[in-house]
Design a protein that fits this description.
single chain, 589 residues, ABC transporter transmembrane region fold, six-stranded mixed sheet, four-stranded mixed sheet, 17 helices, 10 strands, elongated, binds adenosine-5'-triphosphate, transmembrane helix, ABC_transporter_sub-D, ATP-binding, nucleotide-binding
Length: 589
């Protein structure tokens, strides 16, 4: 069952709490402004403002036309009750023509507004994507518990943010304008009715406010649990084979159902307050019509107003109730909007912090030079709780290799993460070329979505290479028959599932030989291969004149490396001579 905090219906008012609420509101406005302003001051701002101005113009046109329609409505009902046929026909024709004009204004306004929404969404999504991929935020964000499901924030929350921003700002403006137009109509017929409309709307607002206190936190949870549920299903799809091997379906189904139950509990908890809110709003708007008749009837019977005035007053009265009750009727939608603003605002804050240079914390400095060297490097985990390697200094001779060995979990891959710039907590200097000149091959090479050609070309999938060249490089890594087997270079398959890990690792080396970089980082990238294949690939690597860092466990790798460092854990390490299989000279602290 949902165990989230539900606030008391009647809050205790205190200055401190009020200040906190004002601060919270300021924070929401700041988030909203931070996300919204980027498009409206961007290079596309001229088109954006022009379209917005057009929408506003058509709103004004539609609203004034609709007030005119109200006038003709009064006229023809009065003519009807007075049995004035000519007048009736005349005002009916005017009513019909005005209605057509109104409809065309509404269609044009909707068209322009939808276009504006799409342009804004296109721009903002690209903007978030740029910042998500810049500074490797997509990788760093995994360590941040507050930013759950960034994918949902980019794919859905942006759409919702734009839709609601336009809807609520324009809707509020439109409501105020309508209020002005209909206020004078109602005021001219019956003053008291204006006050009744305002009081009714205030009552509606109070009720909605108290129910909204329950709904707001539920709407926040709703968005998060919806995303968690979908992600749990994606996770099963991505790991389907491992789950099938472990016969983990029961466990996985339990996990997915657990996420769904969490979502359902929130949705159930929302039903009662939402229904009460809908009921109260509907009840009020229906009963106020009777109230309006009650107030108008004495004037009508005294002959002070016509029947047409009554017909005109009812929509004017309900409009005024709608105007003053705008917050009440929009309350639930606004709480959802607040949830979306918070999700996007915190995400934008995170992306901004990620782009800014690191603070005064001790970090590993990377200097771009055409060599691989470490100088007094200390590597810590991102949470800075553990020192994995301390004060490591070494330089890899050109066209040679260094091998990092050591027990599992000792910190070998973490040194590579520091070299790649993924981790920077620690101290010292790393000298390396630009990452564009280094090819990193992890233990499980990343298989992109797409054709076999794309797999081989990755990460430079736009490069033009002849089929013969691609086949040639596949032969170099002992994958000669792969193209024939899968049915061609342009076949698209789920490569992570259809190729064995050893084949994927050979494909990783095919990428390396194809792009022939000066530098390579190989993280247990031959661990799934037989010794003969491993030796073959390392021979080719040496022939290719590449300077490389390897991580591996097998002693058979030692002859291919000039330098061997054994990582001992807890910050300790030592150099091993390539002639000895197990260590001698202790060099580190
Ligand atoms: N994001 C992280 N935050 C904190 N600690 C982490 C993180 N990622 C890894 N670690 C820890 O850092 C330590 C070193 O991890 P690393 O991946 O470098 O080990 P390794 O020597 O390459 O192991 P293996 O041979 O098993 O691949 C491990 O104890 C691991 O649990």
């Amino acid at each position: 069952m949902f165990s989230g905090e539900i606030r008391p219906l009647f809050p205790n008012f205190s200055l401190k709490q009020t200040m906190e609420k004002i601060e919270k509101l300021r924070q929401f406005l700041r988030w909203f402004w931070q996300v919204a302003k980027r498009y409206w001051i961007s290079q596309e701002r001229f088109r954006a403002w022009q379209l917005l101005a057009a929408v506003v113009i058509f709103i004004i046109l539609a609203e004034t036309t609709s007030a005119l329609l109200n006038r003709y409505l009064g006229e023809f009902t009065t003519a009807l009750t007075n049995k004035e046929l000519d007048k009736f026909h005349h005002s009916l024709v005017l009513f019909g023509v005005t209605l057509l004009v109104l409809l065309s204004f509404l269609i044009i306004r909707s068209f322009i507004q939808n276009k504006l929404e799409l342009y804004w969404r296109e721009w903002l999504t690209k903007d978030f994507l740029n910042r998500y991929f810049a500074g490797r935020a997509f990788y760093q964000v995994n360590g941040n518990k507050e930013i759950d499901n960034p994918d949902q924030r980019i794919s859905e929350d942006i759409e919702s943010f734009i839709d609601k921003s336009l809807f609520y700002s324009l809707d509020l403006g439109e409501t105020i304008l309508r209020g002005f137009l209909f206020f004078s109509i109602l005021w001219s017929i019956n003053h008291k009715l204006v006050f009744v409309a305002i009081l009714t709307a205030l009552a509606q607002t109070l009720v909605s406010f108290f129910i909204g206190r329950i709904l707001t936190p539920l709407n926040f949870k709703n968005l998060q649990y919806q995303a968690d549920f979908r992600y749990s299903l994606v996770h099963v799809r991505n790991n389907s084979e491992s789950i099938a091997f472990y016969k983990g379906e029961e466990q996985e189904q339990g996990m997915v159902q657990g996420k769904f139950s969490q979502l359902l509990a929130v949705l159930h908890a929302k039903i009662l307050p939402s229904s009460v809110l809908v009921g109260i709003n509907a009840g009020l708007s229906l009963s106020v019509v009777i109230l309006a008749y009650l107030f108008l009837a004495p004037q009508y019977f005294a002959g002070q107003i016509t029947f047409g005035d009554i017909t005109r007053s009812i929509p004017a009265f309900t409009t005024i109730v709608g105007v003053f009750g705008w917050f009440a009727t929009s309350f639930e939608g606004l709480t959802l909007f607040a949830a979306v603003i918070k999700r996007l605002g915190t995400f934008a804050d995170y992306l901004q912090q990620n782009q800014q240079s690191p603070s005064s914390e001790s970090v590993i400095n990377t200097l771009i030079e055409p060599r691989f060297a470490l100088s007094h490097v200390t590597v810590k985990t991102p949470d800075q709780k553990r020192v994995l390697v301390e004060d490591l200094s070494t330089e890899i001779p050109k066209s040679e290799g260094i091998l990092l060995m050591g027990a599992s979990g000792s910190g070998k891959s973490s040194i590579l993460r520091a070299v790649a710039g993924l981790w920077d907590k620690g101290a010292g200097y790393i000298y390396r070329p630009n990452t564009a000149e280094i090819l990193f091959i992890p233990q499980r090479p990343y298989m992109v979505l797409g054709s076999l050609r794309n797999q081989i070309l990755y990460p430079h999938t736009n490069r033009q290479m002849s089929d013969t060249k691609l086949q040639d490089v596949l032969e170099q890594v002992n994958l000669t028959d792969l193209v024939d087997r899968v049915g061609g270079l342009d076949v698209e398959l789920n490569w992570a599932d259809v190729l064995s890990l050893g084949e994927q690792q050979r494909l990783g080396f095919a990428r390396l030989f194809l792009h022939n970089p000066h530098y390579a980082v190989l993280d247990e990238s031959t661990s799934a291969l037989d010794v003969a294949n491993e030796q073959h690939l390392y021979h080719k690597l040496r022939e290719a004149d590449i300077t490389y860092i390897s991580v591996g466990h097998r002693p058979t790798l030692i002859p291919f490396h000039q330098l061997i460092v054994e990582i001992l854990g807890h910050g300790k390490w030592r150099f091993l001579s390539p002639n000895e299989s197990q260590g001698t000279s202790l060099v580190s602290s």
